[in-house]
Predict the 3D structure of the following.
Amino acid sequence: MTTIDYSVWDHIEVSDDEDETHPNIDTPSLFRWRHQARVERMEAFMKKGEELEKSLTESRRKLAEAQRRVQELVSASTPEAKADLAKAQEEEKQLKKQERSWEKKMQEHRIEEKKMPWNVDTLSKEGFSKSVVNVKPEKEEETEEEKEEKHKTFVEKYEKQIKHFGMLRRWDDSQKYLSDNPHLVCEETANYLVIMCIDLEVEEKHALMEQVAHQTIVMQFILELSKSLKVDPRGCFRQFFAKIKTADQQYQDAFNDELESFKERVRGRAKIRIEKALKEYEEEERQKRLGPGGLDPVEVYETLPPEMQKCFDDKDIQMLQDAITKMDPTEAKYHMKRCIDSGLWVPNAQADEEGDKDKEESDENLSVFKIWSQNEPNKH
């Protein structure tokens, strides 16, 4: 048979109107004074708790700022930073002591609160006056411009350190380097390493690409772990290395599979970038070749009838004139205009060179043409 523990009711402060008073005492006034005194004590106690909570929060804020300052000085290499480092570390040490002191006072306050006797005011409270859904506030989404600016600023400051991390090979070396430079454990580092991999693959430095790809997946796994644990990635990267170094086969296989998939994606992106660069180069060359009418001499040459192509190949002007004479006048005029607009042939060039403008023919079909050697198409 279950025994009910009624001891919890032993420590209750009875109601103000249960005491018997002397007939000469104004009982209602006495009860009001007692109640007022108890309410004032409770308010003072609650106010003390709020002040302790506020002091503890402020202490933690100052400690976080001091720790951030120490990290910045550790990563800096200037003589001034090294001189300030000792002072910042001492300040951090003192703030940690203050935090522990406030935490102790807060704990003592909570214990004292539990020991306080119940009374009519604390026994009779509303159970539920409203419903509150505990939803984590969503962080405001950054715009693309803000993300780009944040990435640019971070890379400008830590590019050398990111590249150093990308070249590490051993687990222990990577863990130690991140311990010494915890600011690198972030999305910006992962994004830069991805770009670095693609650049190396484009430059055909395949072995280096695979090395940096390994470190990229290390950083991405740390970031994914932080999301699953809902903690700052700087606080969980040691857990990743502990897990990966224990030879957990399933975890190791997942890591290797993601690494191989990532390398394939890098090769694909590099191929697309190379193809795009080639197309841009070809378009630039094509623009340089365009004649006065905006046509490409190579494209025009490929559309000419075979007998006209032979005239170009042999650079025989007489042969061209004979070929034009045998063609339909409309078709001949069409092809000749395209040759002129592409700069493939220059009309009346020979007459200009000889300084005899009277020799120019009025009939376009019998014009004298000269090969413009700079735009001469390749033979196929």
In short: Residues 350-380 have pLDDT under 50 and may be disordered. The CA atoms of residues 144 and 150 lie 10 Å apart.
